[in-house]
TrEMBL record:
GO terms for molecular function: metal ion binding; serine-type endopeptidase activity; tripeptidyl-peptidase activity. It comes from the Eukaryota. Lysosomal serine protease with tripeptidyl-peptidase I activity. May act as a non-specific lysosomal peptidase which generates tripeptides from the breakdown products produced by lysosomal proteinases. Requires substrates with an unsubstituted N-terminus. One of its GO terms (cellular component) is lysosome. PROSITE patterns: SEDOLISIN. SMART domains: Pro-kuma_activ. This is Tripeptidyl-peptidase 1. Gene3D superfamilies: Peptidase S8/S53 domain.
Length: 557
C-alpha cells in the first residue's frame, strides 16, 4: 500500500505510548484559547497515525555522520529512499502485532508508506475509544479553526506498546502563530527596511548569483492554516526582483491551498526563498484541514518518507516549546530528520522568536528551548539586525533570536569544541547554570537578518515584518544557490550541513559579536538570555553568510 499521503491541518505534536500508557496519566490540559464545542459523535470519522518502531536507528545515525562529514570517504554518498526503507523498515513481528491489534477492532482502512514505519488509519470515534481505552474525543475551536482531540490520556495493550513510538492525532494542540508584524513607530518612514536588494548587498550576492541547472529545487512548508497567494508573489517580484533573474511562480504545490486571506508567514517564506535562491524551482508544502484529527507537521514528515523525488533544501519557520512535547515523540521526529539527511536533503528550521525563552517552575525560572530548533539533525537559523538601521552596515544580535541548549538531546560531537570554547570564554558573564543545560545540543548554527522585512501579502506591501521566519528562507535560498554550483561541477547536494559548517570554524561567515537576546524577566537574569561573542554563540551561531566566500569553501571538495 505504498500510496502517496498528502495530508493537512494545523501542526501538533502527539503524546507518546509509555509502558502501556501515555507519558502522563494526568488529564490532558486544553489551552484556554481553544473553546470546547462538543463531544464527538460515536459514528464520526477520525484519522489516527501509528508510528511503528523502526529497526537499525543507530546504523542510520552512523550513516548520516559518514555521508555528512567532509573528512569521510563516504561524504556525499547519499542513500535512495529505497535504501533508507530497507534500513529502518519495522520488523515483521512489529508489523504483525500492530496489524493484528488494529484488525481485532475491525480497523482495516489503513494506508502505509514506502518505509512502512507509519500507518494512517480511518475509524469511527467509537472504535478509536475502544482501541485506545481512556481516550475521549471532543471538538475544539480557535480563531474559526476546528480540531478534534482527546481530553484524556489513553492506554494500549502491553504487547503492543513495545512496537509503537506514538499514536498521532490525540492530544497535542498547535501553538498560536506569532505576530510577525512589528510596527515600530520610532522607525516608521525612516528605517531602511530589508528587501531582496538589501540582502544581496549585505551578503555579497551579485546579479549573476541565480540558479541555472535543471535538477535543483527548494521548498518551504506551511502549517497553521497559512497560505501564500500567487498574485502576491508576482507583485513582490515585480516590485523587488528587478535586479536579478528570477521566477515569479511556484513550480509545485504539494497539498491543497486553502481559501481566504494570504498569511504573512507564508508570504514571507515563499517570497524570500525565491528572491534569495533566485531562478530555482520552488515547491510549497501546504496543509489545510482535511481531517480535524490530523497533525500537519507529522503529515509533512510522512510525505518526506514517501516521495522519491524531493527538493534538496527545505526551510521551515515553525516550532514549539521542548517541554510541551514528549521525549519519545521528539526522538522519533529526529529519526525522520536523519532519514531525510542521509538522502542529501538539507532541513533548515527557524530558531524561534523568544530569545532564550522562559519557563516558570514555582519560584524557579529556567530558559525554555524550542523544538525542532534543538534537534541535532537539522540546521537552525537565528536572527540579526543592522547595527545602523538606516543603512547597510554590519550586523548585531536581534534580541528575539531564539537560542540556547536542549534539555533533551545531548550535544552532538560536531559542535562540542565550538560550544565548549564559548562556555569557557564567556564563563564570567553566563547566566546561572540552573537556567540551562550546558551539555545539551546548542543552537542556532548560523543566522541572517531577521528584522524589518518588506513583504507583499493580499496585494499590499507590508513593512516591519520580523522574525527568524525571515532569516531561515534567506539562508535556505543561499544554500540552494550553492547546490546549484555543486551540481554544475558534478558534486552531490550539501545534505545535512552541520558537520561541515562546524569544521569551517567560522570561515566564510560574518561573525556577530554584539548584543544579547531575551531571557527570563526576573531578578537573576533581568530579562537577558545569552550574548553574542567572537566565534560561535547561542544567539547567532557562527554568524551570517558571506555568500561568495561560503560558496568557495563549499565547492572545494
Amino acid at each position: 500500500m505504498n500510496k502517496l499521503l498528502v495530508f493537512s491541518l494545523p501542526f501538533l505534536f502527539s503524546s507518546v505510548v509509555w509502558s502501556g500508557y501515555l507519558e502522563s496519566d494526568q488529564d490532558v490540559l486544553i489551552p484556554q484559547e481553544w473553546a470546547h464545542v462538543d463531544r464527538v459523535g460515536p459514528t464520526e470519522e477520525l484519522e489516527l497515525t501509528f508510528a511503528l518502531k523502526q529497526q537499525n536507528v543507530h546504523l542510520l545515525e552512523e550513516k548520516l555522520r559518514l555521508v555528512s562529514d567532509p573528512d569521510s570517504v563516504q561524504y556525499g554518498k547519499h542513500l535512495s529512499l529505497e535504501e533508507v526503507a530497507s534500513l529502518v523498515r519495522p520488523s515483521d513481528l512489529t508489523e504483525k502485532v500492530v496489524h493484528r491489534w488494529l484488525q481485532s477492532h475491525g480497523i482495516t482502512n489503513c494506508l502505509t508508506i514506502r518505509t512502512q514505519d507509519f500507518l494512517q488509519c480511518t475509524m469511527t470515534a467509537e472504535t478509536a475509544e475502544r482501541l485506545l481505552p481512556g481516550s475521549r474525543f471532543h471538538r475544539y475551536m480557535r480563531d474559526g479553526h476546528y480540531l478534534v482531540r482527546s481530553s484524556a490520556p489513553y492506554s494500549v495493550p502491553d504487547d503492543v506498546h513495545h512496537h509503537l513510538d506514538f499514536v498521532g492525532g490525540l492530544h497535542r494542540l498547535p501553538p498560536k502563530g506569532l505576530d510577525l508584524s512589528k510596527k515600530q513607530k520610532s522607525k516608521a518612514g525612516f528605517h531602511l527596511g530589508v528587501t531582496p536588494a538589501v540582502l544581496r548587498t549585505r551578503y555579497n550576492l551579485t546579479s549573476a548569483d541565480v540558479g541555472s541547472v535543471q535538477n535543483n529545487s527548494q521548498a518551504v512548508a506551511q502549517f497553521l492554516e497559512q497560505y501564500y497567494h500567487p498574485a502576491d508573489l508576482s507583485e513582490f517580484m515585480a516590485m523587488f526582483g528587478g535586479g536579478f533573474q528570477h521566477r515569479s511562480e511556484v513550480d509545485r504545490v504539494v497539498g491543497t491551498q486553502g481559501g481566504g486571506k494570504a498569511g504573512i508567514e507564508a508570504s514571507l517564506d515563499v517570497e524570500y526563498i525565491m528572491s534569495t535562491g533566485a531562478n530555482i524551482s520552488t515547491w510549497v508544502f501546504t496543509n489545510p484541514g482535511r481531517h480535524e484529527s490530523q497533525e500537519p507537521f507529522l503529515q509533512w514528515m510522512i510525505l518526506l518518507s514517501n516521495m522519491t523525488d524531493l527538493p534538496w533544501v527545505h526551510t521551515i519557520s515553525y516550532g514549539d516549546d521542548e517541554d510541551s512535547l514528549s521525549a519519545a515523540y521528539m526522538t522519533r521526529i529526529n529519526t525522520e530528520f536523519m532519514k531525510a539527511g542521509v538522502r542529501g536533503i538539507s532541513l533548515l528550521f527557524a530558531s524561534g522568536d523568544s530569545g532564550a525563552g522562559c519557563r516558570h517552575l514555582g519560584k524557579e525560572n529556567t530558559f525554555r528551548p524550542s523544538f525542532p530548533a534543538s534537534s541535532p539533525y537539522v540546521t537552525t537559523v537565528g536572527g540579526t539586525s543592522f547595527k545602523n538601521p538606516y543603512k547597510v552596515t554590519y550586523e548585531v544580535t536581534d534580541s528575539i533570536s531564539g537560542g540556547g541548549f536542549s534539555n533533551i538531546f545531548k550535544m552532538p560531537d560536531y559542535q562540542t569544541t565550538a560550544v565548549n570554547s564559548y562556555l569557557k570564554t564567556v564563563a564570567a558573564s553566563l547566566p546561572p547554570k540552573s537556567y540551562f543545560n550546558t551539555s545539551g545540543r546548542a543552537y542556532p548554527d548560523m543566522a541572517a537578518l531577521s528584522d524589518n522585512y518588506w513583504v507583499v501579502s493580499n496585494r499590499v506591501p507590508v513593512p516591519w515584518v520580523s522574525g527568524t521566519s525571515a532569516s531561515t528562507p534567506v539562508v535556505g535560498g543561499m544554500l540552494s544557490l550553492i547546490n546549484d554550483q555543486r551540481f554544475m561541477k558534478g558534486l552531490p547536494a550539501l545534505g545535512f550541513l552541520n558537520p561541515r559548517l562546524y569544521k569551517l570554524n567560522g570561515k566564510a561567515l560574518f561573525d556577530v559579536t554584539e548584543g544579547c537576546h531575551y531571557g527570563c524577566l526576573d531578578e537573576q537574569v533581568q530579562g537577558q538570555g545569552f550574548c553574542a561573542a567572537p566565534s560561535w554563540d547561542p544567539v547567532t551561531g557562527w554568524g551570517t553568510p558571506n555568500y561568495p566566500a561560503l560558496l568557495a569553501v563549499l565547492l572545494s571538495d
